[in-house]
Design brief:
By secondary structure, this protein is of the alpha/beta class. The protein has two domains: about 35 residues, no CATH class; about 190 residues, Rossmann fold (3-Layer(aba) Sandwich). It is built from nine helices and six strands. A four-stranded parallel beta sheet has the order 1-6-5-2. A two-stranded antiparallel sheet has the order 3-4. The chain is globular and about 55 Å long. It starts with a helix and ends in a 5-residue tail after the last strand. The structure holds zinc ion (ZN). Zinc ion binds next to α2.
């Protein structure tokens, strides 16, 4: 397998998803230099971090964190773009795996089940996949927690949210998520997985749907965070 891989790698080397340089055999998706340079938040190390604060006074969240800072113009922006629009599910799996390693031994690791934030069915059909599924898969692998992508669903289509205030976004997403088999989540600690958190309103709507079930607790892990100030 190693020889075959090396042979094809000579012809068509895998390239780093961030900087485009050929990857070494021990590197996957992102080269070690880019992994080292990734602007990590380390938010998982303190509970009153900026992502957790997004939910203060809105909804009860056990733990919340994002793996890295999403900044416009940064070379790491393409990771999220390619994961969402260029069928690069491997980026989601690898970053999810790396984030999971960072979360090992923390409160996040005590969750019972990982649920990806769902897309509306039509949107998912058009895109071919939900980018939060590979993220959840990566997290599940390194945290040793199962993930299930068919329990949380989004039956209502929300209109585009790009140029709306935080308040109208919240209005827009309230009540649009539904739990398919609530009995499966009863008394469970759920880890919600998403790609980027901005206002937190989508995650808040997901958490609201989950917390309607008896005995549930919710934690939140996103690959990236896009906040104006840090
Ligand atoms: Zn690189």
């Amino acid at each position: 397998m190693g020889l075959v891989h090396d042979f094809f790698n000579l012809l068509l080397p895998d390239l780093c998803a961030t900087c485009g340089t050929p990857l070494f055999r021990n590197e996957k998706v992102i080269c070690l230099k880019c992994q080292y340079d990734l602007p990590r938040t380390r938010f998982d190390s303190y509970t009153d971090n900026p992502v957790a604060r997004l939910f203060w006074g809105r909804i009860r969240i056990e733990n919340a964190s994002s793996y890295f800072r999403y900044q416009k113009g940064s070379r790491f922006q393409s990771l999220i773009h390619d994961l969402k629009y260029k069928d690069r599910k491997d980026i989601g799996r690898e970053l999810g795996r790396l984030m999971g390693i960072e979360l090992q031994g923390s409160g996040f690791a005590r969750a019972d089940i990982i649920l990806p934030v769902p897309l509306h069915r039509i949107k998912q059909l058009r895109r071919g996949y939900n980018q939060c599924d590979p993220i959840s898969e990566g997290l599940a692998g390194s945290l040793g927690i199962p993930f299930q992508s068919d329990l949380l669903e989004k039956p209502v289509r929300s209109t585009t949210q790009t140029r709306k205030s935080r308040y109208s976004r919240w209005e827009n997403v309230d009540g649009i998520f539904r739990i398919k088999h609530p009995e499966k989540l009863c008394e469970r600690h759920i880890l919600l997985a998403d790609d980027v958190v901005t206002t937190g309103s989508t995650l808040e709507a997901c958490a609201t749907a989950i917390l309607g079930i008896d005995g549930t607790r919710v934690s939140i892990a996103t690959l990236a965070v896009a906040l104006k100030s840090f």
